């Protein structure tokens, strides 16, 4: 168990309706744990005007309604930051979470992973070895953004530390498993994208008919299980 103090983070206004809490500059599991702990603390406090608390890799965005605050007492952002600093001065601890372990089917290469060979050339290994490295590594779900259910997880093997594509695609297929800058993302919806697509999962990661609609959650431990094209078709889930 570790402890945290207000001096360990930086608060700053972002526009007129958001205060950003910066927890650190590095992306690792310790910082992620603090992000989640601070998110839970702020959300539970029900501070005046706060509408949403949004965690990311190293920050927590606190979105609020400025009209709730008394303008005679100063800027709404300054008033909210005072309240937030008070919360963070209270003892805050983070303990090892009981994470779910989830195995996600994925078909690598070919039409499902058009960048697999390029990643192999970058790493100086075979495509088969890329699949083995990626699928054998247990990763933690760090954050969700870009679209509902779109997860970002890590860390990956350093050998797979390729960057984004030089030319983004105008359309990346829904379910695509893509890597870049040490992270793995699952594209929930078909959309433009510049990450290296190495596989595709038949699972639907976001479904409004489910409660909760997001299949994964922050802190989950995930591992990808290679499947054949035939098994992919068998496991394919409908999307709205």
UniProtKB/TrEMBL annotation:
PANTHER family: 5-OXOPROLINASE SUBUNIT B (PTHR34698)
Record-listed E.C. numbers: 3.5.1.54
Keywords: ATP-binding, Hydrolase, Nucleotide-binding
Species in which this protein is naturally found: Brenneria goodwinii
Record Pfam families: CT_C_D
GO terms, molecular function: allophanate hydrolase activity; ATP binding
This protein's record includes keyword Oxidoreductase: no
SUPFAM superfamilies (alphabetical): Cyclophilin-like (SSF50891), PH0987 N-terminal domain-like (SSF160467)
Keyword hit for Ribosomal protein: no
Protein name (record): Allophanate hydrolase 2 subunit 1
InterPro entries found in the cross-reference section: CT_C_D, Cyclophilin-like_dom_sf, PxpB
Domain annotation Carboxyltransferase: ranges: 9-216
């Amino acid at each position: 168990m570790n402890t945290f103090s207000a001096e360990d983070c930086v608060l700053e206004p972002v526009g007129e309706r958001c205060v950003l809490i910066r927890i650190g500059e590095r992306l690792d599991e310790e910082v992620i744990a603090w992000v989640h702990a601070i998110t839970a603390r702020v959300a539970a406090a029900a501070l005046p005007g706060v509408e949403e608390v949004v965690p990311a890799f190293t920050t927590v965005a606190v979105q609020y309604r400025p009209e709730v605050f008394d303008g005679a007492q100063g800027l709404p952002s300054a008033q909210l930051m005072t309240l937030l600093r008070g919360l963070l001065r209270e003892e805050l601890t983070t303990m090892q979470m009981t994470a779910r372990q989830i195995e996600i089917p994925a078909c690598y290469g070919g039409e499902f992973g058009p960048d697999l060979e390029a990643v192999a050339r970058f790493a100086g290994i075979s495509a088969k070895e890329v699949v083995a490295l990626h699928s054998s590594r247990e990763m933690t779900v760090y954050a969700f953004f870009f679209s509902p259910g779109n997860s970002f997880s890590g860390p990956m093997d350093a050998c797979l530390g390729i960057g984004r594509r030089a030319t983004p695609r105008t359309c990346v297929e829904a379910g695509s498993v893509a890597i870049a800058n040490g992270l793995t993302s699952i594209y929930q919806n078909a959309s433009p994208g510049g990450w290296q697509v190495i596989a595709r999962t038949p699972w639907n990661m976001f479904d409004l008919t489910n409660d909760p609609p997001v299949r994964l959650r922050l802190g989950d431990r995930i591992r990808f299980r290679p499947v054949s094209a035939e098994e992919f078709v068998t496991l394919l889930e409908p999307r709205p």
